[in-house]
Amino acid sequence: ALDQDTDTLSLFFDGGDVGVVTNLTGFAFEPGGCLLISFDGNEKKLPGLGIIKPQTVLKFCPTSLGETTAGTWSVYFDGRDVNLKAAGEKLDALEIMPDGRLLLSTKGDYSVKDASNATLSGEDEDILIFTPTTLGPNTTGTFARYLDGSTVPGLGKEDLTGIYYNPLNGDLHITLLDSFVIGGVAGDQNDIIILRPNGGGYTVLPYWDGAADGWTYRLRSMHIDLP
Length: 227
Known about the structure:
Blueprint: E1 2-3, E2 8-9, E3 24-29, E4 35-39, E5 56-64, E6 70-78, E7 91-96, E8 102-106, E9 110-113, E10 119-122, E11 127-134, E12 140-147, E13 160-165, E14 172-176, E15 180-182, E16 185-187, E17 191-197, E18 202-209
Antiparallel strand pairs: 1-2, 3-4, 4-5, 5-6, 7-8, 8-11, 9-10, 11-12, 13-14, 14-17, 15-16, 17-18
């Protein structure tokens, strides 16, 4: 967690305290305060859950966070139930919308079903939106494409790795795997940019230069506490 007023970093979630041995790829906050988390590979060490595939989102409800993290795990979204099974369909980024729908991005190419049961295919620069009928170990629902990354100049050749949705104005804050120039805005893997809806497309804006705050690591997800 970065406090931008004081430029100080603190440990927010210690996965090792709660059994995590696999790299995280995405996280988001449920309105009730639980965390939704996805993993970079098979997670095998969480008690009572079996092998968690990288197409799955778990829910972690904390009793404490920070240097001493504690809480309980459950399955929130099982992507295998809705045809996210291929290696390229590992979840790369996730966000939860105010109405409970999920925004998801994959590490590679994807092929899923939309509300009319037609095949919906795309690549790692896209954002899917999942409308659930049921959640948990038996996940059902339908997909639609929320963002076609190829329509944003420069984004089509990139890999989107993090999503935050601003509920006040619909802005998408995103992170990318490598250095980029998108819509005239240049950055790298430790930066956050904004895609601002402009009536059929997006205006691209810089948001956060990680290196300016001493953050030199690749960003794989993010959440922003709005003032």
